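STRUCTURE REQUEST FORM
Protein name: Coenzyme A biosynthesis bifunctional protein CoaBC
Source organism: Parabacteroides segnis
Requested output: structure tokens
Priority: standard
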Amino acid sequence: ASRTVLEKKKIVITAGPTYEKIDPVRFIGNYSSGKMGFALAEVSAQQGAEVTLIAGPVSLTTTHPNIQRIDVESAEEMYQAAMTAFPGADAGILCAAVADYRPEIQAGEKIKRESKGEMMLHLIPNKDIAASLGAIKREGQVLVGFALETNNEATNAESKLKRKNLDFIVLNSLRDAGAGFRCDTNKISIIDRQGETTGYPLKSKQGVAVDIVNKLATLLK
Ligand code: C5P
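Status: completed
Returned output:
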């Protein structure tokens, strides 16, 4: 009989990349595999939570009966699903690699090659899901974000924490071997609102998810 640290808690998790349509056959995306977010969903469910997993386009499956999965494609769809689910939840974990911009115009037909000419794609900003949830966060709700940085990791992560009204932020650096996109392992630090940083060793994404869930559980008491 293991301890279930998230018993009956409702957790919303975003995971994976978003695809921003250019035309019916092309998109702007990123290399996120969704593995970290899916590991968080599995571990949260194993720890007794009812999970809403809002997943961008990924090739992963979920098995636990307490995971309700909502598949989305674009940042706008992910935003709508997250804003709908979060008010009824105890916590949100924003693990998705959301596209910051989308093409202003999505062509209805496949764009044809111009004769030798260059081509411009005009991009407009997507909504920041983390910041939007941070703005509607109620007393007692806990919000967790991720930061993947290539430079000035800690400083950027701390400013993100404040700007998005997060309770803690999980920092993973692209500089660490075996961390970040597509791998099965990750190396994280957690920075909380008190400015306290805890470093963790390189672990499987499953093991990292356990550390994050345990940290979340301490704030949900
Ligand atoms: O600002 P940056 O994208 O680096 O922040 C990363 C954090 O914000 C992650 O938790 C990510 O899931 C979240 N985010 C979001 N919506 C966006 C951009 C980022 O929820 N449009």
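Reviewer notes: The pocket of cytidine-5'-monophosphate is lined by residues 14, 75, 94-96, 98, 126, 128-130, 145-147, 160 (CB under 6 Å). The longest strand covers residues 142-149.
Form closed.
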